[in-house]
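Researcher: Let's run the pair from yesterday's discussion. Sequence first, then tokens, for each.
Model: Starting with the first of the pair.
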Amino acid sequence: MISGTSIFGQIISILNSANVSFDALVTRYGNDRNSKGFTSMMQLVSMLFSHLRRADSLREITKNLEYCAGRLCHLGIASAPKRSSPAYANGHTSYMLY
């Protein structure tokens, strides 16, 4: 069994370090106020993951997340979202958080 953290996990862990807390920024800008399961952290992880995988469409993003869902559960994505969840989140969240 492989022990340790993936490089992608290390990148995500920097966001919740002592200096910069992503959760504090989410609270400050109120992005998760009305979310029903697809949080800002899930959105960030899925968008970073899709950027690194060079995905071009929402269908490709969700399919890649489906294939890697077991390996991404430690990052907060237990199951792959439907296409409408990232689409809605990308259209309705504040850009100021990112």
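Model: Moving on to the second of the pair.
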Amino acid sequence: MLAFGVVLVAVGVLLAVVEAHLSTGGLLGGVAAVALIGGATLSLAGAGAGLPLTLVLVALIAVASTGGLTVLRRTLRSVRRQRPRVGVEAMVGHQGVLRVDGVADRVFIDGALWRAQRDPLGEPSAWHDGDHVVVERVNGLTLYVRRAEEWELES
């Protein structure tokens, strides 16, 4: 029983390290906590420790594991609320300048020309070269844009 408890503790530590590097949302961390608690209980019982010592140590491991998982959960929740900083998803909300050349509409944003398509629910007025637009959504390499409002241009 002592050997199995030591193996469970080792597996628990290994799973906690893997959770720290892979961030599975606390799934591996929870399994690690259970393995640590079970391994500590079996190890102490196999070593002949008394029941009060076993209960105190298991309670300390449980409190530490629960605290660690709570901190991990709060960190993940705050990261999920942030807007993307890179990639195509980060283009939404950016402002650009419209380039109309007769063949296709393009938008100049952050030093690059992108294909532009007018938002079908937007205003039906004509587009002009040099109009300021805001990206509403992205589909592949096409930006769906709308004309920028006055208050958006001032910021």
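Researcher: Give me one sentence on the second I can quote.
Model: Strands lie at 95-100, 105-109, 112-118, 132-139, 142-147.
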